[in-house]
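Would you mind writing out a protein's amino acid sequence and the numbers that encode its backbone to help me picture the idea?
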Amino acid sequence: MSAGPVGEGYVLDTGVVIDLMRSPAGTRFSHDVGSATYLSIVSVSELMLGVQTASGLERKRREVDLARVRRRWPVPIPYDEEVLEAYDYVLAALLDAGKQPRKVLADALIAASAFSIGVPVLTGNVADFRGLEELVGVEAFEVVSVSDAP
């Protein structure tokens, strides 16, 4: 495995996926999140947890959002042997940066997913991935403008 991204596209952090789902049509973002984006099985798992911990109308909205995500990214990056090997590198980088990997487990697994396929992580919270910039590549995602259209 080589350090740094070499492929095209991004692995989306879970927060980016939530931003994409909740933003109205016409919203502009800092990055094009078209066809060259990937989703980790970890993010799908986090979204499932969000459904299970909600109730009433909020739970229904999250179920619909999860179904939309599953249609857009029907085959997330699995947690396989390549991701497990990449995770070892991610853990070493986090420990070198003075972080406690248990506190950032989901983010570490998302970073390992990105590292395993050679693309950076796209995140709205770069601080969550501090210490991994050289290994994985971390890019900041933000909403640039929100459309006035209904």
About this structure: The chain is about 45% helix and 10% strand. Strands lie at 10-12, 28-29, 37-39, 121-123, 138-140, 143-145. The longest strand covers residues 10-12. The first helix runs from residue 14 to 22.
